[in-house]
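Retro notes (design track)

What went well: tokenization of the new backbones is finally stable.
What didn't: we kept losing track of which sequence belonged to which structure.
Fix going forward: every design gets posted as structure first, then sequence, in one message. First example under the new rule, 136 residues:
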């Protein structure tokens, strides 16, 4: 089934699928696995766009002990000294936010109500609601 929504909503469905992937049921498991694969493959570009540069990772590692000990002055000094890296990361995260907010269409697999496992919770059902084909 063709589903059109914001990428952010697809990520939420993905998280819902991951949360139920250990539940029993062959047909249910196959449909969950197929949907996870589709979403993961189709939205890989967002994960790639959000990866920090090696330089920013190094800066982050330098800041970690300062953050843990709440050394605000040293954090600000380090941020100012590496303003180019901080600004680039902020711009990168803004781009990721735009990607998350943009619409996309994916071919996902409907999950018939009849294959839902007995032990699935209401919360888990709500997270997958857009994929479930309800029987009337």
């Amino acid at each position: 089934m063709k589903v059109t929504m914001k990428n952010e909503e697809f990520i939420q469905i993905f998280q819902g699928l991951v949360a139920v992937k250990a539940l029993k049921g062959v047909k249910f498991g196959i449909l969950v696995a197929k949907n996870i694969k589709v979403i993961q493959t189709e939205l890989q570009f967002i994960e790639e766009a959000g990866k920090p540069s090696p330089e920013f990772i190094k800066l982050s590692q330098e800041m970690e002990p300062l953050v843990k000990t709440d050394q605000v002055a040293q954090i600000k000094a380090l941020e100012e000294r590496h303003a180019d890296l901080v600004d680039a990361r902020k711009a990168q995260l803004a781009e990721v936010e735009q990607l998350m907010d943009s619409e996309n269409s994916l071919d996902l697999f409907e999950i018939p109500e009849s294959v839902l496992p007995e032990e699935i919770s209401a919360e888990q059902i709500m997270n997958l609601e857009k994929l479930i084909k309800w029987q009337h």
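Added context from the reviewer: The first helix runs from residue 7 to 20.
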